Amino acid sequence: MVVAVLTAEFRLPAAQTLKDKRSVVQSLVRRTAQRFRVAAAEVGLQDDVRRAEVAVAVVSGEWRHAEQVLQEALRFMESQYPVEFIDGGVERR
Predict the structure, then answer these.
(1) CATH number for the domain harbouring residue 70
(2) Element at 10 (helix H, strand E)
(3) pLDDT at 92
(4) Residue 81 near residue 24 (C-beta atoms within 8 A)
(5) Closest Cα to residue 80, out of 25, 8, 17?
(6) How many domains does the chain have?
């Protein structure tokens, strides 16, 4: 059994208020979790209007599969939402 976690920091250039940011981040987290059957949450930078930290976790039988799911989830988030990936990575737990 493998547990893999993606931690991603995003810039939200269009967000003007925390309400704008939370609207985007909540949708991003919810849709990513549903689409990829993973656990997802905003885990940091909650009070920063222009940045968000999101974690996505997956449990799998193989490391390669877990990493692939997380990379696809990251591509989905970047392509479907007005966010820019700043920093992050995938780690085994």
Answers:
(1) 3.30.70.1120
(2) strand 2-11
(3) 87
(4) yes
(5) 25
(6) 1
For residue 19, the enclosing domain spans: 2-92
pLDDT tens-place string over residues 27-57:
999 999 999 999 999 999 999 999 999 999 9
Tell me the whole-structure pTM to 2 decimals: 0.90
Q: From residue 84, give the alpha-carbon distance in Å to each of 24, 25, 40, 58, 78.
A: 12, 12, 18, 22, 7
Measured distance CA(10)–CA(84) in Å, rounded? 5
Q: Any idea which residue has 């976790």 for tokens? A: 57
The proportion of the chain whose per-residue pLDDT surpasses 90, expressed as a percent, equals 91
